[in-house]
Specification:
Elements lengths: L10 H11 L2 E5 L6 H6 L4 E4 L3 H13 L1 H4 L6 E4 L7 H12 L5 E5 L16 E5 L15 E2 H5 L7 E2 L4 H10 L3 H4 L3 H22 L7 H13 L7 H10 L6 H13 L7 E2 L4 E2 L15 H8 L3 H5 L2 H22 L2 E7 L5 E8 L4 E6 L6 H12 L2 E2 L5 E6 L3 E4 L5 E4 L3 E2 L1
Parallel strand pairs: 1-4, 1-5, 2-3, 3-4, 6-17, 8-10, 12-14, 14-16
Antiparallel strand pairs: 7-15, 9-13, 10-11, 11-12, 15-16
Helix pairs in contact: 7-13, 7-15, 9-13, 10-11, 10-13
Length: 419
């Protein structure tokens, strides 16, 4: 049964597909992204292992009875399965012995280190990554422009977005957390703040079993947030947090960053390396991002008004919410998202590359005054000697009107986009 006020998620189609050929499906992603609620739609038996009593029962069953451990009408959902990691091998064996398809769903908000798992489960248990909601999933984007249609070469008719500057600032601060969408505006920002506190107070220690200094972790996350949507190196961020009086040796600093990655808090954008004949060298640094911009907002103590009063910072956070949505949409199209930078200084914010080799380039700009320059950059990239030419070039904006320019570059409001 679909829960009241449940908003359909793009990942549902991927889950259905994987359950047809996989014995088990693992849904991974950050806390509060909606993994459990969506997984329950596909489950007949639901085991919530984050409940201490249930966790204790299943830890005991794991030592005495596989049949009782895996009892229940299938598909069985083990929510936060890593709380009883012995489940993995028992599930894998059950799938092998019975040739099951779609029998188990596992959710996890943490990639814990040193789990006692003897086999990867490759070919039997397959993973899906679930991010917070995109603007299309939350109902804030009209969805009048389809990325898949653009990849097919369909022509675009002019469209209009109803999202204002104030709206986009609110969406950045609110984030894509399902629990926040239906709250009053004054309460929406509290969700991301509570999530961040929960991660710092509890999860950062549990992910690798190492106790961490909570204040130093807060300062590290603030340093990362100050560098959102930039190519700042780890050395730069390390120096930044040292300037705050955070005296961490580099090895400890690296372990703190690793914990945030394993908790799906940090999700950097990797550099694109196409086959290209050019004298320019392609740079390989990651672009710093969070899985959702609201985490950075919470870390820096920002608000809608503070963002609107600092247009430079607003621009970096606008790129972050665009990156989140493009990653969600690209995933549903069997694609990945990168950025591009070469030694000539040519930089492109986002590259979507599909698994069939098609690709598209996107520049993120908040206003019309930057559109011409962004279009020139996109065309420079398209004119490089590549084996495959782009399916389309796009400037992703927060303007009201979406259209195709005379040079064929699309200008698309984020409030019109869908996969």
């Amino acid at each position: 049964m679909t829960p009241v006020n449940y908003r359909r998620r793009l990942i549902e189609h991927d889950i259905e597909n994987k359950m047809r050929y996989s014995g088990g499906v693992v849904i991974e992603g950050p806390k509060w992204a909606g993994k459990s609620t969506t997984a329950e739609l596909f489950s007949k038996t639901i085991i919530k292992l984050q409940n201490p009593i249930v966790k204790k029962q299943y830890q005991t069953l794991a030592t005495i009875s596989r049949d009782d451990l895996l009892a229940g009408e299938k598909p069985i959902l083990f929510d936060e399965w890593q709380e009883v990691p012995e489940l993995w091998d028992f599930i894998r064996l059950d799938i092998d012995e019975n040739k099951y398809k779609g029998a188990y769903i596992l959710t996890g908000s943490t990639k814990k280190q040193n789990l006692p798992v003897s086999h990867t489960g490759t070919g039997r248990i397959n993973s899906i990554y679930m991010r917070p909601m995109s603007l299309f999933e939350s109902g804030d984007s009209t969805g009048s422009v389809s990325l898949s249609a653009l990849f097919r070469g369909e022509k675009l008719k002019p469209v209009k977005s109803n999202i204002s500057i104030n709206d986009i600032a609110q969406f950045i601060c609110r984030g894509g957390w399902p629990e926040s969408v239906d709250l009053a505006v004054r309460d929406q920002l509290l969700v991301a703040r509570d999530l961040l506190e929960s991660i710092i107070k509890n999860d950062v220690d549990e992910v690798d079993g190492i106790k961490k200094d909570k204040e130093k972790m807060r300062k590290l996350i603030r340093s990362y947030a100050r560098n959102i949507s930039t190519l700042a190196t780890s050395k730069t961020i390390y120096q930044d947090q040292n300037n705050e009086g955070l005296l961490l040796d580099y090895k400890t600093f690296d372990s703190y960053v690793n914990a945030l990655q394993r908790l799906f808090v940090i999700e950097n954008v990797k550099a694109w390396s196409p086959q290209i004949r050019s004298s320019s060298t392609i740079r390989t640094s990651d672009k710093k991002q969070f899985v959702d911009p609201s985490i950075a907002v919470a870390a820096l103590g920002l608000s809608v008004e503070k963002l609107k009063n600092d247009f430079n910072t607003f621009g970096f956070f606008f790129e972050s919410i665009c990156t989140r949505d493009i990653k969600i949409y690209a995933q549903s199209l069997n694609g990945e998202v990168f950025h591009y930078l070469d030694s000539s200084g040519l930089e492109i914010d986002l590259i979507i590359e599909l698994n069939d080799g098609k690709w598209a380039a996107i520049e993120v700009k908040m206003g019309e005054n930057e559109v011409d320059k962004a279009a020139e950059n996109l065309k420079k990239l398209a004119n490089l000697h590549m084996t495959v030419k782009p399916s389309f070039l796009m400037i992703l904006t927060n303007t009201q009107l979406g259209y195709q320019r005379q040079d064929d570059v699309y200008v698309i409001p984020i409030g019109c986009l869908k996969p």
